[in-house]
Write a structure and sequence with these properties.
Length: 309
């Protein structure tokens, strides 16, 4: 079952959930990622399933370089000790690209990645072997709000464009599990899109629902709800940094890439794409459009430090 879109639905009240349509379920999300797994290769040969991070010195026309730099930005934000072994957790890893790059660049780093999509772990295992880091990566198939991993054992954790798949506008179930997993003093890094207020304008609300339905996302987090939930679950030093301009160069790759991909896949499939593959294409265009609503939406890096329980 997927959410039904209806632009005539009333706007959510301040006390009501942002999503006013039939809820997107975990099964929807699994079906989506299973069906479009190979399509992400068109965006990134290394299966980076997120936007890139541009900085001076990087060519904005070379997408893969910016995608890798986003992974490095996450690694820097974790502020891991300079020496000695460390173990980190990727909550909602996709095909493990962020963990693979960070482990590859730091020999003393070990990583556990969590996804509930089996095919993503199959892709990750193959790419780990090609990169020569399979001995320091473990991929588990689980719900990232109930991982089953040991309590207070991780030196850091992150979620890159995956926290949005948790429930509610605060993503409290995701935050609670991250708090359980992290050692006191360890950092959580979340990179994602955020709604800036609970009540959007009519067009922005409709576009958010179209985007969310097409990518099987229940709802984006509301930034203030999310940061409040972090504090409620024992995180301190909560910082929010807008990455709007850092990701813009990679986002501008979408129109040409999505159009070329659509035409090629329609040709190969003789005009017939499965529903989730069609939605995947729609969501790609929506991402760029949603980013134009500066007063309603932002793309941010949120960092927080786990306090003593």
């Amino acid at each position: 079952m997927t959410a039904r879109l209806n632009p005539d639905l009333p706007l959510a009240s301040p006390s009501a959930p942002v999503a006013a349509t039939a809820p997107v379920t975990s099964a929807d999300t699994q079906d989506y990622f299973t069906e479009v797994a190979d399509d992400y290769r068109a965006w990134s040969a290394h299966y980076n399933m997120h936007f890139g991070y541009w900085r001076p010195g990087l060519n904005p026309l070379r997408r893969e370089g910016m995608l890798g730099e986003m992974n490095r930005a996450v690694g820097r934000a974790l502020q891991l000790p300079a020496a000695g072994p460390a173990c980190v957790v990727d909550l909602g890893c996709g095909a493990g690209a962020t963990a693979r790059l960070l482990v590859g660049e730091r020999p003393s780093l070990f990583a556990v990645t969590v996804t509930n999509v089996a095919v993503q772990n199959e892709i990750a295992t193959r790419l780990d072997a090609q990169a020569g880091v399979a001995d320091r990566l473990a991929h588990i198939e689980a719900d990232y709000t109930r991982t089953g991993l040991p309590t207070a054992a991780a030196d850091g954790a992150w979620a890159v464009e995956s926290a949005c798949y948790a429930s509610g506008t605060a993503k409290a179930d995701f935050i609670a599990e991250a708090a359980r997993l992290l050692k006191p003093g360890a950092r959580l890094v979340v990179v994602d899109g955020f709604l800036l207020r609970r009540r959007q304008g009519r067009l922005a609300n409709w576009l958010h629902r179209l985007w969310a339905d097409s990518w099987a996302v229940p709802t984006l987090a509301v930034r203030d709800d999310f940061t409040a939930a972090l504090r409620e679950h024992g995180f301190a030093d909560v910082q929010v940094r807008s990455l709007r301009w850092r990701v813009a160069p990679s986002a501008l790759h979408i129109p040409v890439l999505a159009t070329r991909f659509t035409l090629a896949e329609l040709w190969k499939a003789r005009g017939r794409l499965t529903p989730w593959r069609r939605k995947h294409i729609v969501a790609s265009y929506c991402s760029l459009a949603l980013g134009m609503f500066w007063n309603e939406f932002d793309y941010c890096m949120v960092t927080a430090v786990r306090e003593q329980p």
